[in-house]
């Protein structure tokens, strides 16, 4: 039985490691495509939808923390799985937008410019890093490995919350420069 558990852990660890590398690599590859695909004008609304998704994710993350502090494991599980689902939906929406629309240059000047780029760069870097942590956190929770879940969440949670919040802040900073 213990051997089976170890083998299962190895299998899932391998899958998580592959996904944690493949997801950002595929996104970067897709974003690197210069020729845009015409998916229709509806895609111009995706940045606004993405900001809503990121806002909802941040709220769910905060609610998940509240629920677990209240020892309401069921509500915690539900909110965190919803946050994970929204994160996955965000990823699809983000890729669709960038496959079909040119990137929007930031037009801000003065001190707001370095603030914007600091937030953007830290958001992007941490959004790549957080994939591995979140996948592990979800796996450990769903497989009942709560001690390991708690250990990885110490890193996953603040990074994920930062990425969600800075995604919204960056959106509001660049939103005036979107072409419609």
From TrEMBL:
Keywords: Membrane, Transmembrane, Transmembrane helix. It comes from the Bacteria. Pfam families: DUF420. The chain crosses the membrane at residues 12-33, 45-68, 80-97, 117-139, 159-178. The keyword Nucleus does not apply. PANTHER family: DUF420 DOMAIN-CONTAINING PROTEIN, HYPOTHETICAL MEMBRANE SPANNING PROTEIN. This is DUF420 domain-containing protein. It comes from Larkinella insperata.
């Amino acid at each position: 039985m213990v051997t089976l558990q170890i083998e299962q852990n190895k299998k899932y660890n391998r899958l998580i490691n592959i996904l944690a590398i493949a997801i950002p690599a595929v996104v970067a590859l897709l974003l690197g495509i210069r020729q845009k695909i015409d998916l229709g004008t509806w895609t111009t609304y995706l940045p606004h939808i993405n900001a809503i998704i990121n806002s909802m994710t941040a709220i769910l993350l905060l609610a998940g923390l509240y629920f677990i502090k209240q020892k309401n494991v069921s509500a915690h599980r539900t909110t965190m799985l919803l946050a994970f689902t929204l994160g996955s939906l965000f990823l699809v929406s983000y890729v669709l937008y960038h496959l079909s629309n040119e990137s929007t240059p930031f037009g801000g000047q003065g001190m707001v410019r370095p603030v914007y780029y600091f937030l953007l760069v830290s958001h992007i870097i941490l959004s790549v890093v957080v994939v591995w942590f979140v996948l592990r956190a979800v796996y450990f929770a769903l497989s009942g490995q709560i001690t390991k879940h708690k250990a990885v969440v110490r890193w996953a949670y603040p990074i994920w919350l930062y990425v969600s919040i800075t995604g919204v802040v960056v959106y509001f900073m660049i939103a005036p420069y979107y072409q419609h």
